Amino acid sequence: MRKLHSRRRRPLCPSAPELTALSYVGAALGLVSLLASFIACSTDSSTTSRKDGGTRNHSTTTGGTSNGGTSNGGASNSGASSSGAPSAGAANGGAFQGGSSNAGAANGGAANAGATNSAGHSSASGGASSGGAKNSAGSPNDAAAPTLIDHYVTFYGWPDNDPAGNGIAYPKLHKGASGTGTFADPITFATDPTEWMPGTILYVPYLKRYVIMEDSCAECIQDWNTHKYHIDIWLDSDGSFDSQVLDCEDTLTRSKTSVEIDPPPDRPVDSIPLFDTKTGTCNPQ
User: Fold this and answer.
1) CA geometry: angle 250, 253, 255, nearest 5 deg
2) 285: which DSSP letter?
3) Left if phi > 0, otherwise alpha if psi is -120 to 50, otherwise beta: which for 191?
4) How far is Cα 106 from Cα 76, in angstroms, rounded to an integer?
C-alpha cells in the first residue's frame, strides 16, 4: 500500500501582518455600522419630530378655527397616519382651507365632519339671511298688522242732533241712529262723506266697539277741509236724561286716538252700553 506523506500544517494563529489587515477591515466595518446606525437614528428622530410637529401644527391651526371638534379628530388621524409629515401637512392645509379633498383622503370621517362644519356654517349664514327675509315679509301664521289712523272722536245724542232725535242722513244698516257696537251691529257715526263713505265700518280700540258711517256732521266737514280726521259717534239716548247725555258725550270725547280701518270681525267688543238710558248712567272707557 502506498505510504501517505505527511503534509506540513499551517499554524492556527495568524501572523502579525494578517492581524493588522484584519483589524483595519474590522475597524472600517465598525465605522460603517456606526455611521449607518447614526443615520437611521437621525432619520427616525427627524421623522418623529416632523410627525409630532405636523400634528401639533394641525391641532393648533384647526383648533383656533371654529371647527373645534373636527380639528381634534383631524389631528389624531393625521398623527396616526403613516408616512408622514407631507400627508399630515396636506391634511392640515386642507382642513384650514375648509376641508379640501386632501383632508378628506387623509382624515376620512374627520374630513367629512370638517366639510359638514364648513357647509353648515355657510348654510347657517344663508339660513339666517333667508330667515331674516322671511321674518321681514311676515310668516303665513302672523295676523296682518292693523291699519290705524288718528282721529278726533266726539259724540252726539238725542238732545244735540239736528233736528233733535235719532234721524240720520245716510241710513245703511239702521233706519235711525243706533247700534250695540258689535261687527254685526255697529254704532252709527257721522262725518264728511268724502272722508268716509256711507256704510264704512271702523273699529275704535279705546271703546272696543265697531262703528258705521250713516250720518252727516257739520263740524266734521269743516275739519276735513284741512284733512283732519273727525268722527262723531252716536250715544244711545231717547230724549230723557238730556243733561247726563251731554256730560257723557264730553267724558267720552278724545282729541286724538287711533281708529282701525277695514277691521276684521273678531276684535274684542265691550257689551256694556256707553250710556244707560234707563238709569242715565255714563260708562266711561
Assistant:
1) 125
2) -
3) beta
4) 11
- Dihedral through CA 176, CA 177, CA 182, CA 184, nearest 10? 30
Residues near 232 by beta carbon (within 8 Å), at least 6 away in sequence: 154, 155, 156, 189, 190, 191, 215, 217, 219, 220
Long-range contacts of 115-122 (CB under 8 A, 24+ apart): 117/66, 117/67, 117/69, 117/70, 118/67, 121/66
Calpha distance 260→266 (Å, rounded): 13
Q: Which residue has the cell 505510504?
A: 3
pLDDT of amino acid 186: 98
Residue type (1 letter), 17 = P
Q: Within 13 Å of residue 55, how many CA atoms lie on the same side as its CB?
A: 17
3-class SS of residue 24? helix
Dist CA 202 CA 212 (whole Å): 6
What is the structure's pLDDT at 180? 97
Give me the pLDDT at residue 115, please. Answer: 37
Nearest to 178 by CA among 186, 275, 156, 170: 186
Write out pLDDT tens, residues 7-59.
444 444 555 555 555 556 666 676 777 677 666 655 554 444 444 444 444 44
Element (H, E) at 114: helix 109-137
Q: Residues in the chain with pLDDT < 50?
A: 1-12, 45-142
* Per-residue model confidence (pLDDT) at position 35: 72
Quote the pTM value: 0.52
In the beta sheet, which residues pair with residue 147?
261
